[in-house]
Amino acid sequence: MTVAGRLRPSGHPADRDILRLALPAFLALVAEPLFLLSDAAIVGHLGTPELAGLGIAGAVVQTAVGLCVFLAYGTTASVARRVGAGDVRGALERGVDGVWLAVLIGTVTTVLGVLFAGRLVGLFAPAPLVAGQATTYLRLALLGVVPVLVMLAATGILRGLQDTRTPLVVAVVGNLANIGANLALVYGLHLGIAGSAIGSDLAQLGTAVALVVVVVRGARREGASLRPDLPGLRRAAHAGAALVVRTLTLRASLLVMTYGAATLPRASGGAAAVATHQLAITVWTFLAFTLDAIAIAAQAITGRSLGSGDVATTRAVTARMVQWGLFGGVFTGVGLAAVSPLVGALFTQDPQVRDLLWPVLVVAAVFQPVAGLVFVLDGVLIGAGDGRYLARGGVVVLAVFAPLAWLAVRVGPAATGAGSALVWLWVAFGIGFMGSRGVVLMRRVRGSRWLVTGTG
């Protein structure tokens, strides 16, 4: 029997519950990175400076949004625990607190981001032409932060209520609107990279409104309050603080990657290296969201089962989801390796970017099984509310990965040739980032300190 055959999940009692949540989440999460993929494809055909600018600006926006992912993850866990305890009204009220917190954080982030957009881009030390494109995109894209954060919180509520179908429908419609708006604004009205940012803002606003309408209807049906509650906001912020630290360390690792690519010597690719890295990280993010579908199921199921006090089910379903994650990683890894020579042509006409891209994608493919394991275990611990451990683990991962990334950028070109520098950076990413995360998470799940029951 093949390795994939041994890993393939089948015939387990938990499979139906996992699939019921994971399959719609998978489709919705695939739709989410299509925002990035469609932007990259449309902007990439404008030129290499525009694509490089999108890469830098996208890293900043994704970091700002990524730091607030607790609005989805933390809300899913807290709502699911209440649902497991039979308190649907209380679950919705906790979720509404998360939405109001999203509005508050998003407003502050947008104002500060727009004011300091130029300085944020300058941190990556890009070429002047790339810096201009990045600053233009960043200032406009930041206007969509509030809708994105509201979307995260509302999605977290629905997932906690064990509903992953509604976010799927809304995500698909929103993605189609994003593609249409981008094409119309970038090429129809000839707005260039600015049109891409505006199109995404409009699509994100529509998506957020649709999800909020669904949540409001559910809250009214259960008699839950829709007013902002100060103690509730404080509780939501406190619960999310550890996840912010966890996410900050993970995003810092991705920023280290972007900075490393941006500072590669000209002999290693220059702007082409940044553009290549942007495409590679976009593809990696797409696959990460794909694998993260099981993690979404893990958050909802773990929160619900611990909320009802069922530790045995939590253990059993965790073991099963690990098998699903490993199999998913093997599947996506093989698929990515197979198409890696063809991907570049979808995004750019620059032959240098195409030549640099395919070996980087092969490296990413090798580490996909590790990614599948990591995403599942991360989801389990988030669902358990084990944010403090995840925060500490994130610091350890960053401390391991950052020196390896530095060695890849500074020592790799001298030892093996400038052309392989970006490949070595991605090898460091696979070993130092994904590998160390796997070790940290496996160590925790094998113990029992994360198995805390009740509503939390």
What is shown here, in short?
The protein is 83% helix and 0% strand.
Instruction: Tell me the series of helices and strands, N- to C-terminal.
Output: HHHHHHHHHHHHHHHHHH
**Beta-strand content estimate:** under 5%
* Structural domain count: 1
The helix tally amounts to 18
Q: Give the N-terminus to C-terminus distance in angstroms.
A: 43 Å
Low-confidence stretches: 1-7
Overall radius of gyration: 21 Å
Report helical residue fraction.
over 70%
Q: What overall form do the CA principal axes indicate?
A: globular
Report on the biggest sheet.
none
What does the average pLDDT come to?
Answer: 84
Overview of this protein structure:
The chain has 456 residues and is mainly alpha-helical. The protein has one domain. Helices cover 83% and strands 0% of the residues. The protein has helices at 3-7, 15-44, 48-66, 70-84, 88-115, 117-122, 128-141, 145-160, 165-188, 193-222, 230-262, 271-307, 311-347, 351-366, 368-383, 387-410, 412-416, 421-445. The longest helix has 37 residues, at 271-307. The protein is globular, with a radius of gyration of 21 Å.
